[in-house]
Amino acid sequence: MAERAGVSRSAVSRTFTDGASVSEETRKKVLEAAEALGYHVNHLARQLRERSNIVCLIVSDVTTPVRAALLDSLTRRLQAAGKITVVLNTESDEASVGRALKLTLHYRADATVVLSGTPSSSLVQTALANGQQVILINRDDRLDGCENVGVDNAIAAREALFLLRRAGCERIGLLTSAASTPSLIARERHFFDAAEREGLSISLWKEGPTTYRSGYDAALKMFARSQAPDGVFCVTDLLALGFMDAARHAFGLRIPQDLCLVGFDNIEEAGWQSYQLTTFEQPLDRMARHVVDLLSLPEALGSSDRAAAVFEPVPIWRQSVRSHPA
Amino acid sequence: MAERAGVSRSAVSRTFTDGASVSEETRKKVLEAAEALGYHVNHLARQLRERSNIVCLIVSDVTTPVRAALLDSLTRRLQAAGKITVVLNTESDEASVGRALKLTLHYRADATVVLSGTPSSSLVQTALANGQQVILINRDDRLDGCENVGVDNAIAAREALFLLRRAGCERIGLLTSAASTPSLIARERHFFDAAEREGLSISLWKEGPTTYRSGYDAALKMFARSQAPDGVFCVTDLLALGFMDAARHAFGLRIPQDLCLVGFDNIEEAGWQSYQLTTFEQPLDRMARHVVDLLSLPEALGSSDRAAAVFEPVPIWRQSVRSHPA
DNA sequence: TTGAAAGCGGTACCAT
DNA sequence: ATGGTACCGCTTTCAA
């Protein structure tokens, strides 16, 4: 202990606590001694009395552009808010997420933010019981006691359908992945609902994981048969980009003349010259900010308000959809 | 404290310490009580006696594909090794990195891994003095006492030049960004060295940050004048992809007939059908594994060996370079 | 095998 | 404003 500054430990503590009363003189002595000894307050020892200030991020597939972007916003903002961000990189299955969530308990995290995968309800309950705040991002299945922040999939699905119809597409398809995450399922369901309301029939295609490769493979298979679609809503930009590449390079299809494509996420790559994908942007940074707000303002809003914040996706008009029928 | 299990705290501790001697009976009692009370060992309180098990990752530009990939490997492997991974998302300037590094001291991190930016030498020294291990990734400037892991930029630069020459390129260029990170500078320098050895003159272009957009803008400017290059080594895939898009779409250049391009990193996107970029892969996962090894085996290797591990980049042959002169 | 007690690095309360 | 002290949750000697 740095009390070779010739003062008590209390004085040291007060020096590093803002709003405590220390004379300028002792303060200086302490600061000097600290400098000499290379002393730094141990933030984790503080945690023995108060909150730990730790926020755990449970995430999988960090390399996926959307995920990386979300992780970026979140870590930035958490850090700005003075939180300690621990990231738990898991698989997205329930067991892995469960293990990760259990770890957060050992770290005495004040809060856990789940970016991917869904923990079992019982595990969440124990986290909650341990005084932890649990925030789920883009999980449409609400769990009791969790706070949710996500994007409005219904709007995007409806608008996507509108765009394809306005373009005069006659055989509309929906491409999704075999990985059924809540938000993907929601986009699918809302797209079908909207189509049904208009008496349209949609062809559904599910292919592998949510990757570029899956989109590519899907197109390879779809255009190898008769009755291929001329307008497709891909539930993810990554799928859309792969789909577009295969349609163009393997089948010589022109976008948007022969085929219209709508994506979702607005990842960087969607704006690249080779793609110019029309898509919907998730306001990730605003969502991240909201998460931090949720952590900071303890119970400012009524609990019903907190339970679910849904952000409106913003359409990004580029060139993969015609503005009129061909 | 869970001694309503009817045992001492010592017993509880021993139950959760492997290799401690507890009778099966007490063990059971403790476990039951823990279950009932929802008790979880506080890993951060442990740290008051021993090592904290915390590893800090200092990183900027998380959305950049290489960075995200590295972060992914690292977090995965650290977690597998039982480490607690705290990520500090900073800007890459020295001041930000410095602030981040200072934070790691407050968290009593056992080690800090710097993925981007370079901390000042003095700050590193205080971290070292506090018993922290500091590992720098892809910083060619060696700092005293740090361990380094990186990729061999010299080989890649030489090989890139070879590829372009074999393709018969006559006006060879080098595209880099204005952000002079050590590894970018190294690639540039080695490329020039190699060219000089062969008596070749290279045209150098620096453009903005290390992004797709910069590559795009660079091409726009370069092909707007006479004497444009017919073979370019882009120090980063992202630059190469932007460059390729502008060359193709704005100038109708055919790749590789009219223009040969070599990148570096082998990000996912480089393999996409629209690009098929010939590039060099950084063995990120092996590098990540090495980092974890460095953390685990305390002083297994001689300190000179540890000081710098350089991995050989592996060439990824695709279609952006001709195999013979046109 | 078990329990008592000391100490890890802090902060907060209570006197002074 | 300052110092003394108890306590946060856990591990580790040391005796029993």
Automatic annotation (TrEMBL), chains A, B:
Q: Which CDD domains match?
A: HTH_LacI, PBP1_LacI-like
Q: Where is the HTH lacI-type domain?
A: 1-50
Pfam families recorded: LacI, Peripla_BP_3
What does the record give under GO molecular function?
DNA-binding transcription factor activity; transcription cis-regulatory region binding
- UniProt protein name: LacI family DNA-binding transcriptional regulator
**What are the protein's UniProt keywords?**
DNA-binding, Repressor, Transcription, Transcription regulation
**Organism domain of life:** Bacteria
Quote the InterPro entries the UniProt record gives. Answer: HTH_LacI, LacI/GalR-like_sensor, Lambda_DNA-bd_dom_sf, Peripla_BP_I
Species annotation: Peteryoungia ipomoeae
